[in-house]
Design brief:
Two copies of one chain form a homodimer. By secondary structure, chain A is of the alpha/beta class. The first copy, chain A, has three domains: 44 residues, 434 Repressor (Amino-terminal Domain); 122 residues, Response regulator (Rossmann fold, 3-Layer(aba) Sandwich); 140 residues, 3-Layer(aba) Sandwich (Rossmann fold), CATH 3.40.50.2300. Chain A is built from twelve helices and twelve strands. Chain A starts with a helix and ends in a 7-residue tail after the last strand. Chain A binds a DNA duplex through α2 and α4. Chains A, B: GO terms for molecular function: DNA-binding transcription factor activity; transcription cis-regulatory region binding.
Chain lengths: 329, 329
DNA sequence: GTGAAAGCGCTAACAT
DNA sequence: ATGTTAGCGCTTTCAC
């Protein structure tokens, strides 16, 4: 494999000049540039980025921490991150933690060892103390899920108001027995959405029964089905469901169908995220739209600015209620 | 930031000794090892991987080329790749090409510049000539989609027989007017599956009408819907659909529902891949199961062995027909 | 068992 | 406009 030195010799110039040509500096005469470019072609030379990385102590890699890539919510955000990162010549180091602290450690070590220039954390399971400690020496931003009272910048939505909006919608349709499929309240977003749910019921003068809230440890379809099974066994029948994620809502919807009940006639359902599949169910799913792609764009912009040493402000993106068949009629 | 030299000074040993301790070599006396470890702790030292990368000319990064991460087929495979890669201390550089040659070039350049030790290509749109040329100097394997008559190792399934199996199933249910939603025949898998479709019809003495095949440029739900719209407008009504991907099949299913037709009574539907969504539709989708996760595992194993200079054999994984409601009764 | 020193491939400060 | 040189942080060969 030819290196910069070989190219320099072949072109009859110094390695500094070759480097200048490679980096497009203007202080090279046209003739010299041509000589060098010819040598590069002839030797089929490709500059190794490893030398540059060491010299510049950067890798232009962004570590992206997610629990699971199979969740469409995250894959859409990653899509947004990548498209924006590429423009600034950054690439993505994909890190699925699988909610496993050992995996998390592996990835944080990668950052500690300077294999990545910055971290975008989307993992709600992330160890907050480690994250805060890492943030002292490394560029970190949080996306979607964030840590209250830390100084780590984040981009997210207004979870409480979004949940409030969803439940208000159900209330406006005349529902009063509204169940809620939440995830673990150790997550900021889960607490905030629960607050929104409760506030809406509260304002309507409805006493939220503890039976009406199901705390799911995971976010797969099957968990939504489990939640629904529990709700269907309640003595006092609920007439509406609000789920903290579309995947859960779709699982619930499926379970309702399996029980020969009708959505929305027997039970209305509202999800959260507006993943693409939510428009393919039968009936289609009413949901809160989160701008996942845009959130990814902004997360990428933020982390790049942070790496460049700039100040970055937190960003709260808009959400929107998308009314579809699962709450119609 | 402390470096290896600082640690050496602080511990009163040479740089070489610190390096030995870092790499767990046995030729270090226990006392020295303790001294060094103490210094590492006290200085809060983290070895930079950049120096090692340069020295060893490796990054332990695997470039994973996919068209789009939002397709659950790919995210599941990536899941499998990552879990296996991690065990061997490799990480994943995520590369979404968006079927854009410019993007592809960016990523190939990353490999040329030695930012990755190997490439797993899952992108059917990949430029075959570039890929073959790259394979001369770099470790490459193909996953799922592959290039016929090239020497690039691959892991995939038997597409022709899988499609044949799907169509045979429909035939056995008495269907004779079976439409096929394919993707572009410039892809190996599309040609193979079409061959399987045609072979099954042929054996049944059925003349496959050209109207019965829809070639979709993309693989989103909406493309399945478009295909179905076309089929529904045919003079001679078809009674069954086989789609080359679950996403397309689900789109078709939705369109059938939208037209107040019943699946499977009016039209039976078979998909391909067995993505998780396929069990959440109403009715649930009959589909060909591909072992995505396992395919990822094997792809990772193969590329790592290739990087180590070992010979690797092509792998053809098993597929299976999963009969569900969309072809029941 | 340990240290000195070369060198991986590159960039940039400095010199000319 | 171009060359010389130091050095980024590490591993490894060779000496002792």
């Amino acid at each position: 494999m030819p290196n910069i030195k070989k190219v320099a010799e072949h072109a009859g110039v110094s390695i500094a000049t070759v480097s200048r040509v490679l980096n497009g500096q203007k202080t090279v005469s046209p003739q010299t540039r041509i000589k060098v470019e010819k040598a590069i072609k002839q030797l089929n030379y490709e500059p190794s980025i490893l030398g540059r990385n060491l010299r510049n102590s950067e890798t232009r890699l962004l570590l992206v921490l997610i629990p699971n890539i199979s969740n469409p919510f995250y894959s859409k955000i990653i899509n947004g991150i990548e498209n924006t990162a590429l423009i600034s010549n950054y690439n993505i180091l994909l890190c699925e933690t699988d909610s496993n602290p050992e995996r998390e450690k592996i990835y944080f070590d990668l950052a500690r060892k300077k294999m990545a220039d910055g971290i975008i954390s989307m993992d709600p399971q992330v160890d907050k103390e480690t994250l805060i400690e890492m943030a002292e020496k490394h560029s970190i931003i949080q996306c979607s899920e964030y840590t209250l009272n830390s100084s780590i910048p984040y981009v997210t939505i207004d979870n409480e108001n979004a949940a409030y909006l969803a439940v208000k919608h159900l209330l406006s349709l005349g529902h009063s027995k509204i169940a809620f499929i939440n995830s673990d309240v150790k997550f900021t977003y889960a607490r905030q959405r629960e607050a929104g749910y409760k506030r809406a019921l509260d304002e309507a003068g409805i006493d939220a029964k503890s039976d009406w809230i199901y705390y799911s440890q995971e976010l797969d379809f099957v968990n939504g089905q489990q939640a629904m099974k529990k709700f269907l066994n309640l003595d006092e029948k609920i007439t509406a469901i609000f789920a903290v994620s579309d995947l859960l809502a779709i699982g619930a919807l499926k379970e309702i169908n399996n029980n020969k009940l009708s959505v929305p006639d027997d039970i209305a359902v509202v999800g959260f995220d507006k993943i693409e599949f939510s428009n393919m169910t039968n009936p289609t799913l009413t949901t809160i739209e989160q701008p996942m792609y845009k959130m990814g764009n902004i997360a990428a912009k933020m982390i790049i600015e942070k790496i460049q040493g700039k100040e970055v402000e937190n960003v709260i993106l808009d959400h929107e209620l998308v009314i579809r068949e699962s709450t119609l009629g």
